[in-house]
Please model this.
Amino acid sequence: MTIDDWDQSFRLAYGAAFSPDMSIDYPHARMVTFDGSPADNILIQLWQDGFGGIEKKIANYQAKNHKLKGIRFEYTTEDPYDFITRGKN
Model:
């Protein structure tokens, strides 16, 4: 999959959420290009850590003094973004 395969609205929202940069024009986000450059690889890691990196997020949460009463993850088998952490059936 390349960045061109992604839905445009998802790409803009994802970039704004996980690589924001208010010094650049709308959508105020650094967008990945998958060109293999070191700068792009850093952005890719930021984007992957958005939904991915679940082990680190869980460890950070467990270190806090307050606890959630519940949590819900939704994922569809039709989702083309394979870097989103998949749950067990």
User: Anything to note?
Assistant: The chain is about 40% helix and 0% strand. The mean pLDDT is 79. The radius of gyration is 15 Å. The CA atoms of residues 16 and 29 lie 5 Å apart.
